[in-house]
């Protein structure tokens, strides 16, 4: 059963810094160029902690993780960041525009007790070892959750909305626009009555990890390590819960709306003629379309992939051609003017097999083409341009994964391929930090 509790958050002092100068995107989407830009914005930008630079003279003792820890200590000593006086929840709201529509999403930053996967907290994506090791090294150096796990739950009754409404009418702790003109607001909720109501309402819900799978598994590993260390010191594990038994999450109720899931398109470097154990020697083949015809109805659209569908929509021709159609993909090949629409007509699919991203990986990439190395890109225009320029041989354009598919994946324990979902907008790092021990 899930347990949600308040915590003494570590927050920037808006009187000392401009919030738009110190927040950063999640670490896994920060390019080297973006990292440089974030460093230039402020000496207190959270990227210096979350995604620190590496240098040629780094050692095991002096490296980006050590510098991250030292930065937090220095900022706290200087008063740039400070602890909330007593345990609190943090109401967060973001206003953003997508495809011409104005959206509002809100949620609660909270400390959530760690439990094994499937015991009230459900992942849906596969993880990789290297990012988890990086996150673990940072967590051990800083003893903190620097960025939150983004999790969703479903409460159709929306029982907390009246409480939120009263708070939303008050002045937020901070309010700012980021570089993408997305509005961010945060309120500190620390009065005992509201804290008790939020904890009681959120505890016991099933939480589905939307973003932060690596961070959750890292928190579980950190908990295991800390328990072992405590046992070695004291000779027993004890029954009292520790700070490391909890992890920072942003909890968002799907029933409120405001969630946007964008597709992550796939790029491949070669198109083999059929299943191969090893990649073919040449990336060029005569007709990959014939391979696809065994499982798909293939339609060639003789118009540019990036032609606007019509003046009133932000969609391109290739995305408009597949929009809203189940088990349907757009395919753009290097050297072609137009593009293809692929509609699955193979055998019956069951459960998660019927979701687009799983179908693409299982049938197209694994069964038909025998490939397991992909490029990823969210922006359709960039995706097409990379193929047109010859960086990749083919691009597969997808529709967004649905929330229901995420919940199905989580509940059945069948993981989706990496980058099956892209929740937008991304939750900035630096809004609130969860320290796991006193400095």
User: Approximately how much helix is present in the residues?
Assistant: 25-40%
Structural class: alpha+beta
Distance between the termini: 31 Å
Sheet with the most strands, sense and barrel status? 9 strands, mixed
Percent of residues in beta strands? 15-25%
Low-confidence runs (pLDDT<50, min 5 residues)?
A: 273-285
Q: How many runs of DSSP E, i.e. beta strands?
A: 21
Tally of individual helices: 13
Rg, nearest Å = 23 Å
Average predicted local confidence, pLDDT: 90
Number of structural units classed as domains: 2
Give the overall form: globular
List the helices and strands and how they pair.
Elements: E1 4-5, E2 10-12, H1 19-22, H2 32-41, H3 47-50, H4 64-78, E3 81-83, E4 89-98, E5 101-113, E6 121-122, H5 129-142, E7 144-145, E8 149-153, H6 161-168, E9 174-177, E10 183-189, H7 192-202, E11 207-211, H8 213-234, E12 246-253, E13 260-262, E14 265-268, H9 288-292, E15 296-301, H10 317-322, E16 328-333, E17 339-344, H11 356-369, E18 375-377, H12 380-388, E19 394-397, H13 403-412, E20 422-424, E21 434-435
Parallel strand pairs: 6-11, 8-12
Antiparallel strand pairs: 1-5, 2-3, 4-5, 4-10, 5-12, 7-21, 8-11, 9-10, 13-20, 14-18, 14-19, 15-17, 16-17, 16-19
Helix pairs in contact: 4-5, 5-8
